[in-house]
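Researcher: Quick test of sequence recovery. Tokens follow.
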């Protein structure tokens, strides 16, 4: 057993890198006699099939924040962190049935574009700036930091070099090819991601069981750390502030999930690039099923690492390697990189490729969406309204490169953060409640006015900050803060809309009909199966 990489690990990883770059550049090539236009670059020519949409959704979502951050949270607080994944499955069903039909009917490139059609250019610009700041300074920077942390832990490469390497890898195909390159390489990335994750899970559980297999290892983990297998935490639990019991199911986590899966550009952009609404909904359904499996490869390894670290006999068998970069209560995010050290030669390369796939696919997705928002909602709106397709695509590439450069500079400053997954959710939660309130009312309440939506979006930030920093015990869990901020923002928008329009419908209100939300038997049956499986999982681990 060795802590570092050996020749076969390097061969496997280099083969993976060549495959991704090759496929990305191949699908990015300009067809003979055809100049790449905005629809080609930003929406993959609206040609994605359902299986590419479903896998790309998962690849965009599952990144270092899940592999490393969620495993760290599994180490620190247990299976309860899986609520993010399992509730996401239900959220995806809701998005596919109620949000997508409206978005696709309006032929959108970006989520801010919907805001312009429903409200105004001013509000679109406000939200576009919100998103650009969030993607660059929180999402891109944190994914780079966590990926750099993993490479530093596993290979001993200096973090700054690791961050630059990841950035260049993601840029190599995504800046040139746009969403088409990102989505089609994501299909391959998900194979590596799931395979590598399962290999690591098997190794961890097999080690815990002393070589008796995965199921025996899982039984021993449950027996050794029963406190880690409760989905609903009691108020006496130290981690209640992060996952506040039953409120996870009925409170603020809905804000995080509906915002992320319904109104987040780098996620929803894949569904907007579908051949049709039905194809997009099938992709959403595939992603929902995959979401039910994800905790097996990102949370269980963290819990297994907790059992290993606290079992002297297991640690004695691991020898000196087991003492290298060992996770602790203060440094829980080291759990997943620590486990990778124990994989056999060759498989270590596969698992590391999975981690790299998670990081690079998310980086590529965020870069593409950041450039889409800047180009379509800022550049074409205020700088060059008559930009041709060639100029638009080039501006998209340049803006993505600048965003990546800023994120590379910011990423090392995040050092020292524990449970980075929770950090990302918490700080995204300052912006997401106001955006969610604006969108929900804009979609489903025809009386919502532009002025009320602008005031709601702007005031939601000081409301969120006040709830975060004013010491009121009942509001201490940040999920409560998200839920309350959303409700207060909705109240502000409703009151102002009624004052302004005196109860009349807004001229830009959306006409809703039952026919708009009709779905296929396949979608309906698949959705029922997802709901039944969720009920079983929560009953097992309540």
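Model:
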């Amino acid at each position: 057993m060795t802590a570092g990489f050996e020749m076969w690990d390097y061969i496997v990883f280099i083969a993976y890198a060549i495959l991704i770059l090759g496929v990305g550049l191949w699908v990015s090539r300009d067809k003979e006699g055809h100049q790449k236009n905005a629809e080609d670059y930003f929406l993959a020519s609206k040609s994605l099939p359902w299986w590419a949409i479903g896998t790309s959704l998962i690849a965009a979502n599952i990144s270092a924040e899940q592999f490393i951050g969620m495993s760290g949270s599994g180490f620190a607080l247990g299976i309860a962190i899986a609520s993010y994944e399992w509730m996401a499955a239900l959220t995806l069903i809701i998005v596919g049935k109620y949000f997508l039909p409206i978005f696709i009917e309006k032929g959108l490139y970006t989520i801010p574009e919907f805001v312009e059609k429903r409200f105004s250019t001013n509000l679109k610009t406000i939200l576009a700036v919100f998103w650009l700041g969030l993607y660059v300074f929180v999402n891109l920077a944190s994914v780079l930091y966590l990926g750099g942390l993993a490479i530093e832990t596993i290979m001993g490469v200096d973090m700054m070099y690791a961050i630059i390497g990841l950035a260049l890898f993601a840029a190599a195909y995504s800046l040139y090819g746009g969403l088409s390159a990102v989505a089609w390489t994501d299909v391959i990335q998900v194979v590596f991601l799931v395979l590598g994750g399962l290999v690591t899970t098997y190794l961890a559980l097999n080690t815990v069981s002393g070589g008796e297999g995965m199921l025996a290892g899982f039984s021993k983990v449950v027996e050794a750390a029963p406190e880690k297998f409760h989905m609903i935490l009691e108020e006496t639990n130290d981690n209640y502030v992060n996952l506040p019991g039953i409120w996870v199911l009925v409170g603020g986590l809905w804000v995080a999930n509906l915002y992320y899966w319904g109104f987040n550009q780098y996620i929803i952009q894949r569904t907007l690039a579908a051949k049709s609404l039905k194809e997009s909904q099938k992709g959403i359904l595939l992603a929902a099923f995959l979401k039910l499996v994800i905790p097996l490869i990102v949370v269980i390894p963290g819990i297994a690492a907790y059992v290993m670290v606290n079992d002297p006999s297991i640690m004695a068998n691991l020898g000196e390697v087991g003492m290298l970069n060992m996770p602790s209560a203060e440094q829980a995010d080291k759990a997943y990189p620590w486990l990778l050290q124990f994989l056999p030669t060759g498989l270590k390369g596969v698992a590391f490729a999975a981690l790299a796939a998670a990081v690079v696919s998310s980086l590529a997705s965020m870069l593409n969406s950041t450039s889409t928002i800047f180009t379509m909602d800022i550049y074409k709106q205020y700088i060059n309204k008559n930009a041709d397709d060639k100029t638009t695509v080039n501006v998209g590439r340049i803006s993505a490169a600048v965003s990546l450069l800023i994120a590379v500079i910011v990423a090392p400053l995040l050092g020292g953060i524990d449970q980075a997954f929770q950090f990302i959710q918490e700080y995204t939660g300052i912006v997401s409640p106001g955006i969610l309130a604006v969108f929900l009312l804009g979609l489903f309440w025809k009386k919502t006015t532009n002025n009320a939506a602008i005031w709601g979006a702007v005031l939601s930030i000081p409301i969120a900050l006040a709830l975060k920093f004013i010491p009121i015990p009942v509001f201490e869990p940040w999920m409560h803060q998200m839920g309350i901020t959303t409700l207060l923002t909705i109240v502000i928008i409703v009151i102002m809309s009624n004052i302004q329009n005196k109860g009349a419908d807004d001229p830009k209100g959306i006409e809703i009909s039952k026919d708009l939300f009709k779905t296929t038997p396949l979608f309906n049956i698949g959705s029922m199966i997802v709901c039944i499986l969720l009920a079983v999982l929560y009953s097992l681990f309540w």
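The first helix runs from residue 7 to 28.
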